[in-house]
Design a protein that fits this description.
CATH topology of the largest domain: Rossmann fold
Strand order of the largest sheet: 2-3-4-1-5
Shape: elongated
Largest sheet: 5 strands, parallel
CATH superfamily of the largest domain: P-loop containing nucleotide triphosphate hydrolases
């Protein structure tokens, strides 16, 4: 018993939590089934690997700042006829990340743009990619604040290195010249690094000029964004927020 306690203490000191959690079960199994030393070690290492993978996943999900849990499995495709489910599920295979293809969801409020984008981001996190969710307004505020304390190069570098970045609700704000410059720098950095970005917006591309300026920079931004891009139009979509009829 003293030796078992000592083993637990050693595993705790080495932070081998996965091994520590199954140690007694594996030792008991080894005694009953006559497992070899190699088999016991293999089981312990597998347990540690699973534990580290789960911790890594939880960390990625936490760092991604997902506003709510919404997987593609729960998306009401039957209530949104403007969406081709097979196309979305093909994107869920995540080949677009390897191809560095941006995804832009365009449609009015309530049609499910954010839900679909979050579902794809969550798929990416589950597969080991690093991602981040931002409301565009919050991102612009943070970019603007970073100018004041001169942390913008470091902040932009971190944003540019995410495997997948989701920018939600472009279109409900007007960007000033400094903010637009920062936004362009971010998109240009991600374009240069072959890192895809997902954007949800209520504006079609030619309407971006109404909220972004100068026009030449907007054109350059769209040129980079649309070079490798999947556009999901939900303009004709029905709102998913309509109250359901009361039961009779």
């Amino acid at each position: 018993m003293n030796q078992l306690i000592h083993l637990h203490q050693l595993l705790a000191q080495l932070r081998l939590t996965g091994m520590d959690q199954i140690l007694e079960d594996i030792l008991g199994k080894a005694e009953k089934q006559g497992l070899s030393v190699q088999e016991v070690l293999h089981e312990l290492l597998l347990a540690e690997k699973r534990h580290k993978q789960e911790r890594s996943l939880q960390y990625r999900i936490k760092q991604a700042d997902l506003p709510f849990e919404w997987g593609l499995e729960s998306f009401p495709f039957d209530r949104q006829p403007c969406i081709d489910k097979s196309r979305i599920m093909t994107l869920a295979g995540l080949g677009f990340i390897q191809r560095a293809e941006n995804i832009v969801f365009i449609g009015p409020t309530g049609v499910g743009k954010t839900g679909l984008a979050l579902g794809l981001l969550r798929k990416a996190l589950l597969q080991g990619y690093r991602g981040k969710f931002y409301k565009v307004q919050n991102l612009m505020d943070q970019l603007f604040d970073s100018l004041a304390d001169r942390s913008s190069p470091r902040f932009l570098k971190r944003l540019a290195n995410y495997d997948l970045l989701l920018l939600d609700e472009l279109g409900y704000l007007t960007l000033g010249r400094e903010q637009m410059n920062m936004f362009f720098r971010l998109m240009d950095e991600r374009y240069s690094k072959n890192k895809p970005t997902m954007i949800t917006t209520n504006l079609e591309y030619d309407e971006w000029y109404n909220i972004l300026e100068p026009a030449q920079m907007v054109a350059a931004l769209l040129d980079r964004l649309k070079h490798h891009c999947v556009t999901i139009s939900m303009i004709e979509g029905d709102t998913l927020r309509r109250p359901e009829p009361a039961a009779t």
